[in-house]
Amino acid sequence: MNATYKPSLYDRLGGELVIEAMTKAFYDKVLKDIELKPFFDKTMMAKQVNMQREFLSSALGGPAVYSGKNLAYAHQGRGIKTQHFAKFVQHFLETLLEFGVSVEEADEVISRLNTRSNEITGKSY
Ligand code: HEM
Question: Is residue 25 in a domain?
Fold first, then answer.
């Protein structure tokens, strides 16, 4: 291993099983948030957790290949505003910290999610 080698965020978080557990815990928070819950009223949450786990694994440098829809397409027409996006990401941050992820690593994950905000809120669509 050379001195500059750094494992992927995926590996530093603990791999697939940890990401899956975090994704479940995260959506529990989202569904308890009265502002966010209505967006998921018609959603099959087991499938949603699975898609999000796959997306995160792949976005954080893991081996998974995301098989879902393009993010802009999946979120368009749902009326998701910047404040919804911010709360969503806040719940993810809280989940990471509850799982014992370091502040530095949590910050890296959140920065990566934040790069997708235009696709989610439709500003680029
Ligand atoms: C960076 C932030 C986000 C990421 C990475 C993300 C990721 C995803 C993924 C991977 C899917 C599945 C697409 C598919 O089925 O092929 C999805 C669907 C969805 N997302 Fe997001 N999402 C984000 C933010 C949000 C926010 C802020 C909301 C609303 C508050 C939201 C609401 C939804 C809804 C309603 C669906 C469709 C669920 C269904 O099929 O019924 N997402 N998202």
Answer: yes
Structure tokens at 85: 């996006």
The ligand 1 site (C-beta within 6 Å) comprises 36, 39-40, 42-43, 48, 51-52, 55, 68-69, 71, 74-75, 78, 80, 84-85, 88, 113, 116, 120
The CATH number linked to 114 is: 1.10.490.10
* pTM (global) more than 0.85: yes
pLDDT per position as a tens digit, 92-108:
999 999 999 999 999 99
Domain of 112, in residue numbers = 13-121
Position in ligand 1 atom list of the atom nearest CA 55:
10
Note whether residue 99 is domain-resident. Answer: yes
